[in-house]
Amino acid sequence: WLPGTTKLLCERNQFSCIRSRQGTFFAFPVQLPLHAMPVADRQGQLVTVGYHARNVDRNLKPSWTYRPSRFEGNSIPAAPFVLGAEMISVAKVIIVLEGAWDAILLASVCGWMQAWPSYLTVFGIRGATAWKSLLNIWKQFWRVDVRFLLIPDGDSAGRQWHGPFTKQLRQCARDVTIFDTPDGMDLTELVTHTGKIPEAITAFTMEAKL
């Protein structure tokens, strides 16, 4: 991430550090649209129902957990991490990656964090089957002519989710483009290795916003 990104995320309640008797965790909010609001007023309104947290103590094996494990008697849903939720109903482009880390890195390096583009929403799904939650929760809000860019990890899990997800998206979006991440890498590793966002990704976002 670029300098200042963590501060912006904390100010917007999109990142926090949790310390408890179980350890220290980096935590990303699990947020849902506020369905109780009238349609005309609920654009971008989110309610946090829990946190997707990663243990960062060096003496413990890193793992992801939901904290708390339940919200109002129900399990915490595998809702995607989202940036630019307030733009979802007008976005021309929706980018879907694996996890909050890659989503934040993309937004940070592209310079979107300071002033979020009006044409864009970015999701980070939580696991190979979490695309189903993205569809169930967010499909009702986006335009039928929106363009999708999927950036899966270059592994078997990445290939597992983008195939069926693409099939579903073609029924409710203008088109779907898949970025071919190199084998064994995710976007964060690729950017760390090359020092920049791949041109295919930046070119897509620049073209699609026109």
What does it look like?
The protein has helices at residues 5-11, 99-109, 131-138, 156-169, 187-194, 199-208; strands spanning 16-20, 23-33, 46-55, 64-67, 70-71, 74-75, 81-83, 93-98, 120-125, 147-151, 175-178. Strands 7-9-8-10-11 form a five-stranded mixed beta sheet, sandwiched between helices. Strands 1-2-3-4 form a four-stranded antiparallel beta sheet, with no helix packed on it. It is built from six helices and eleven strands. It has 210 residues and is an alpha/beta fold. The relative contact order is 0.13.
Tell me the distance between the termini.
Answer: 27 Å
Sketch the major β-sheet.
5 strands, mixed
- The ordered H/E elements are HEEEEEEEEHEHEHEHH
Strand order of the largest sheet: 7-9-8-10-11
Overall, the morphology is globular
How would you classify the helix and strand content by structural class? alpha/beta
Uncertain runs: 36-42
Task: Please count the helical segments.
Answer: 6
Oligomeric state of the chains in view: single chain
Strand content range = 25-35%
- The pLDDT mean sits at 88
Please estimate the helix content.
25-40%
- DSSP strand count: 11
Radius of gyration from the alpha-carbon trace, in angstroms: 17 Å
